[in-house]
Amino acid sequence: MKRLSLILLLIISVASYAQQTPYERSNKKETTTYSEAIKFYEGLAKNHPKQAKLFTYGSTDFGKPLHLLVLSKNSIFDPVALRKSDKRILLINNGIHPGEPEGIDASMMFARDLLKNNSLPENVVICIIPIYNIDGSHNRTGTSRANQNGPIAYGFRGNSKNYDLNRDFIKTDSKNSQAFQQIFNTWQPEIFVDTHTSNGADYQYTMTLIPTQKDKLNPILSSYLTKTLVPDLYSQMKGKGFELIPYVNSINETPDAGITGYIESPRYSTGYAALHNSIGFMPETHMLKDFDKRVESTYKLLNTYKDIMVRDAKIIGENKRKADEFTANQKDFPLDWKLNRSVVDSIEFKGYAAKYKPSEVSGIDRLYYDRSEPYTKKIKYWDKFEPSLTVTKPIAYVIPKAWDKVIALLKLNNVKMQQLVSDTKLDLETYY
Would you tell me which of 86, 148, 264, 316 could form a disulfide with 271, CB atoms 3.0–4.6 Å apart? Predict the structure, then answer.
């Protein structure tokens, strides 16, 4: 009997160990490699075939496809059928900058725990891109982000062509972006999250947040974002031990002079998402905080997005439908934005005293933050942006046939086009 009990205990222990992520097995010191991440998600899909499915899309500059794990409580993995059954879609992208890996590890635990605890929501389907910049994730060192507090080794920001993939969404020079657009237009998420790590100033927060800039978002979505979604994210995350602050985009050298909102154009993932009336977020953990706390805060934030989407599923779906109708009838479209510095708010900010001391390298005074002198005070916050360039929607755009890449990208984004079948003379306007 004792022998049987020991065997059962050993089996349980092995199974429990197998469910752990490489991050957990390393005592929270290491981040997962690409091959480990894909193997882990393959295991989840194999062990939970009714609720998890691993898809592949297109190719990347590394020659491998993008993977997408889909978690569906009701075993529906067809995006068209999901929309017909009124399900909401949460899309999470990780590792676009593989040196900022918290989301990679947090998403693995997030997916595992939802499946293990049988706690997938009925009305929200969760889609996870394990690692977006596959080639950058293979270029592992521990030195490319010199001041970052863990993990031991991590990937590199650029891909194999040295592209910053989070500047490539509207122009799509990379195959990664093509595969992403296929995913995005197939699943059409209402909320999109792209996980990151910040650097720069020192302050007391572990997590900062960049939501889609409210003034360039569809007004229906902007109202929900500013009045409900962001306040609830802040409130719930504070209750979970991780108080949020807007991304620390300092207007001068140090944040106590004030910070501004971040205008993410469509070359960024969240700016691209906004073009599709999807509310986007870039959570940016603080690189100087312990790696395990950065992962924990990301894990809790992902759960918070899920919980709010479950609660507000009907509202979020209706807002998306109305926003799409609004866009279909919209006549004028802003193409560029500028910060209105005459409109300023104030927010409470928890930082550290900024001081200067001689550099050990150059002898010239350098900035540092004194953690022995924390402060809490009001700082200025500029977050009002106005259109600086607006165009009126024409009847149509004429695209020269030689611009085959542009035509292919428009097709990828489901833009309706009609080919001219014969030579035609037209009076046209141009702008650039």
Answer: 264
How far is the CA of 302 from the CAs of 103, 177, 355, in angstroms? Answer: 9, 23, 35
Please answer whether residues 280 and 189 qualify as being in contact, where contact means their C-beta atoms are separated by less than 8 angstroms. Answer: no
Pairing of β 279-286 and β 259-260: unpaired
Buried residues in 80-95 as b, exposed as e (16+ CB within 10 A): eebeeeebbbbbbbbb
pLDDT, tens only, 293-328: 999 999 999 999 999 999 999 999 999 999 999 999
Q: Which domains does the chain have, with CATH numbers?
A: 22-332 (3.40.630.10)
Whole-number Cα distances in Å, 365 to 42, 355, 359, 369: 52, 9, 6, 13
d(CA 401, CA 392): 24
Q: Point out the least confidently predicted range of 13-17, 68-72, 139-143, 355-359.
A: 13-17
Integer Cα distance of 191 and 67 in angstroms: 19
Question: pTM of the entire structure?
Answer: 0.95
Other CB atoms within 10 Å distance of the CB of residue 155: 27
Tell me how far apart the alpha carbons of residues 275 and 335 are, in angstroms, rounded to a whole number: 11
Q: Are strands 191-194 and 207-211 parallel, antiparallel or unpaired?
A: unpaired
Q: How far does Cα 144 stand from its chain's mean position? A: 21
Give the residue carrying structure tokens 């009045």: 227
DSSP string across 64-118: SPEEEEEE-TTS---HHHHHHTT-EEEEEE--SSTTS-HHHHHHHHHHHHHHHTT
